[in-house]
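Need tokens for this chain, all 204 residues.
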Amino acid sequence: MAGPGRVAIKRVPRNRIRHWSELPDGTSAPLEVVLQDKVSTGFPGVIQLLEWLELPSDILMVLERPEHCGVLHRDIKPENILVDLATGQAKLIDFGCGTYLQDTAYTHFAGTPSYSPPEWTRFGWYHGEPATIWSLGVLLHQMVCGKMPFRRGWNFSWGQLSLPQRLSPECQNLIGWCLSMHFLDRPSLEEVFCHPWMQDIHLP
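Here are the structure tokens for all 204 residues:
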């Protein structure tokens, strides 16, 4: 049961649930619930699933709701990040587009099209980590420039990303690296964490 404090309730109509899986105890549940349960182990970077209920026409998820919320994931975008304004801690929410991590390429896309990587747009496949790095690059561009890096319908294979000169060289380098057109040219998550621009970030 949920402990004291405020919670968030997410309602998903049953007819919108495409994928079901099994919880550790064998209970059949929507894949989103199973994935959320798997990561609800106290890790501070992910919103915790406290409970879920199956109703005749809906699935209800009872989720942790940090105080002073403001908003990240296969669907990394500002709306899916909650920020605790008191501590600066970010929390990942909404596993509705999630799936299990695999080493091989994915041939089905779930998420927001404007955050999808060029290999999906051009070839219909993508790998998990490089696609995540791409969406983080789009997100970072949005955060520091106030807009999306590419116009709708822009052909990724032509032209170059232009970044405002007011950004530090380190920030420009990180965004450009994450938004490398070829997925093998993008950094790993570890390389992002170790990037010089990331070292200059001070948490409140």
